[in-house]
Amino acid sequence: MGDSECVPERPVGPGRPRWRWREWLPLAGLTLVVLAGAGLWLAGRREVAGLLWAAATVLTLVPATGSMLRQLWHRRFGVDVVAVLALAGALVVGEYLAGAVVALMLATGRSLETYAQHRATRDLRALLARAPRSARRRRPGGGIEQVPLDVVAAGDRLLVGPGDVVPVDGTVEEAATLDESVVTGESRLVARAAGERVASGVVNAGAGFGLRATRNAAGSTYAGIVRLAEEATARKAPMVRVADRYAAAFVPFTLGLAGLAGLLAGDLVRAVAVLVVATPCPLLLATPIAIVSGLSRAARRGVLVRDGGSLELLGRARTLLLDKTGTLTAGRPRAAETVTAPGGDRDEVLRLAASVEQLSPHVLAAALVRQARERGLPLTEPTEVTEEPGRGVRGRVDGRVVRVGQLADGLPDWAREVRERAERTGRSTVWVSGGQGPLGVILLEDPVRPDAPRTVRRLRRAGLTRVVMLTGDRPRVADQVARVVGVDDVVARCPPREKADRVRQEARRAVTVMVGDGVNDAPALAEAHVGVAMGATGARASADVADAVLTVDRLDRLADAVEIARRARRIAVQSATVGMGLALVAMIVAAAGRLPPVAGAFLQEGIDVVVILNALRALGGGPQPARDGEDQATPVPSGDGSTGSG
């Protein structure tokens, strides 16, 4: 029947499970009534049996009629009209068993749909079940206090105990061993060194460690995952809407065929038989079950898709547009080389730069600090630190004034040679200067993700025919990355407005997916049919406008999501096509007088159950883990002249 009757009044969401015995009660009651009537009929008490079956029909017809009238009042015309007419027709012509079987079919559809929703959303419900509610915060004067999660702010120092869920995004203050499987889908434990970023939602699998919050709870990774999970299961899948539109043609055809069959045969029973086999309530629920199952499958691979409509579009995509920095590249520059002025010390230049940059939130600053710590260099706490936007950072280290950032013209010969070499190789430069001029320069590179080339190949095999890279970087660097990854087109020096324009142009030609991670990617993500954000490392602004979020910092999960989406959509369409085809054949046979109402009701029940079970196949199958060595690729130095240009 229509979605208002067959879908539970309280949608099954990712919160507290609602799969209870009450969901089975209508089906169990109707089953007992039908069986009791069958026993009475066999015992020769056919009138009493008919009364029981008629009662079952009436008990289903009354709420179904109310639901249909509400639908019509809101100008929503669905296949519930056919179900109501089948129930009413069975009562009128005295085919009480057929009416009871139709009622049983509707109850079966509702119960199976609830069960399928329960299975399809159990992974998403688990996200809410394990969401942290409080955090252990270190007091400024010493000691630890338990505080509600919503009072934690960026900059707070927290303690994460053994077995605790990391409450907010932050950086670890000492080495930690983490189970990131819920967020990333990876089952193996991960070791994080001091200073590394950690996403909320992962579990401390080792000793307790300190965590410095970088975001509050609302802006953290896990909160975004939970929010998407709630939205993903609260919205109707697109195939439900397709079914409603299909009803505009299916219902008049059914009524016309039933009326013609009854008129030509001069027998109202034949018209009722057509209506009985044309009651495809669970059939039309099978398509959204397949879509929701796909949402669950994608969530298990670390991809949160906002709703069923986005998943269906992802399964139809033909064009892919990719940001470069943070998407095709790691987005975390690393120090590739340190060049000093004649007679200088490389380690001392790096130590001075990292010491000054310890207080800066800039992504290049984090790269310098990380590199110095990896080399075991002792960092000094800087004083008199000031930052000039676009110029760099100035501070005092061990009594010396140190500047880190860009240099004006008038460079010495050695510095000009290094700058020209950096431009040729696509590396970024960070100059370190003292009171007498430049002490040295640190060359940074942003390598291509090892899984990027293989991901693009998988996406092409999945059906994407055009891959375009958009970047604000220089053409030389963009071309280097494009050659390694294997894209069809490159647009370099592309500011955010132009990115959005290019996505809009591509979207006019085909279903388009845009993948990005930065704030500057948000407009482009919003313009695509499906915007995908690198949520594990990206900006919240891009995740907020995206239709899907990769919760793990791996691009190959995008290919997983596309493969899952195509499979779920294929199963949904298959369920609808096969089921409706069988129903139409049965309707024609019934119109010819070869299928009485009771037999037709049992036949339709079987068709619906089989099709729903087929839709549940979308919960399984899908992409397989990569084989060892498949993700290996030659890193290509790449970098932006300015961080975050994409």
Automatic annotation (TrEMBL):
Origin: domain of life: Bacteria
Claim: Ribosomal protein is one of the keywords in the record: no
GO cellular component: plasma membrane
Record flagged with keyword Metal-binding: yes
All residue ranges annotated as the P-type ATPase A domain in the record: 131-230
Molecular function GO labels: ATP binding; ATP hydrolysis activity; ATPase-coupled monoatomic cation transmembrane transporter activity; cadmium ion transmembrane transporter activity; metal ion binding
Principal localisation: membrane
Membrane topology note: Multi-pass membrane protein
Ranges annotated as spanning the membrane: 24-43, 50-69, 81-107, 246-265, 271-292, 571-593
InterPro entries (UniProt xref): ATPase_P-typ_cyto_dom_N, ATPase_P-typ_P_site, ATPase_P-typ_TM_dom_sf, ATPase_P-typ_transduc_dom_A_sf, ATPase_P-type_domA, Cation_Transport_ATPase_IB, HAD-like_sf, HAD_sf
Pfam families reported for this sequence: E1-E2_ATPase, Hydrolase
Localization in the cell: Cell membrane
Entry keyword set: ATP-binding, Cell membrane, Membrane, Metal-binding, Nucleotide-binding, Translocase, Transmembrane, Transmembrane helix
PANTHER family: CADMIUM/ZINC-TRANSPORTING ATPASE HMA2-RELATED, CADMIUM_ZINC-TRANSPORTING ATPASE HMA4-RELATED
Family, as annotated: Belongs to the cation transport ATPase (P-type) (TC 3.A.3) family. Type IB subfamily.
Name of this chain's protein: P-type E1-E2 ATPase/heavy metal translocating P-type ATPase
